[in-house]
Amino acid sequence: MIPKTLPEQEEHLFKVLSGRRFLQMEGLSNEVPFFICPYPAEEAVGIEAMRASLVKQLGNRGVRVVEINLYDLSVALLRERGIWDDVLAAEPGIGKDELKELLQGVLDPETHLIPKIGALLAGQEFDVLFLSGVGEVYPYIRSHNVLNNLRSTAKEKPTVMFFPGKYTQSLDTG
């Protein structure tokens, strides 16, 4: 049975994420330990609260969670590179396609996001990685590009991506 309410989803996720099988990545058949937690976009505020509660509950159980919000990370990268103010100033005067192209170039997962995530993870002991902020960076950053590139950096521990919308996978289209 699929949990329907947020409290049911939280209880289900807690049971799964705190379980030995999940934490030890058993039964993956050499697959990368990436898991998608899709949710209706209109439930984003509730999911945010649920995620914070999960981190606390898991921590009480001794499960260390590192949270990375892709939006916050993107803003931090733009600030580090000294172009945040330039992007904000340019945004009202350029079209959506131009802004998308600009941001995709300066926030490319392979060359910018993943090395930063790797650096963040290198300095921490953790059991599970939570990725959030996926909806906030769409369409500039595509979640499948992040996950494809994250394979080189975060395959030793399970990763849970909180995904607003329906996440489908097909053998034909990926």
What helical percentage do the residues reach?
40-55%
How do the strands line up in the largest sheet?
Answer: 1-4-3-2
The count of β-strands is 4
Describe the sheet with the most strands. 4 strands, parallel
Overall 3D shape: globular
Unreliable runs, pLDDT <50, ≥5 residues? Answer: none
Written overview of the protein:
The protein is 51% helix and 13% strand. The protein contains nine helices and four strands, in the order ααβαβααααβααβ. It has helices at 6-17, 20-23, 44-60, 70-80, 84-90, 96-106, 109-122, 134-137, 143-150; strands at 34-39, 65-69, 128-132, 159-164. A four-stranded parallel β-sheet has the order 1-4-3-2. The protein is globular and about 50 Å long. 21% of the residues are buried.
Record the SSE blueprint:
Blueprint (H helix, E strand, L loop, with lengths): L5 H12 L2 H4 L10 E6 L4 H17 L4 E5 H11 L3 H7 L5 H11 L2 H14 L5 E5 L1 H4 L5 H8 L8 E6 L10
Helix pairs in contact: 1-3, 4-7, 7-9
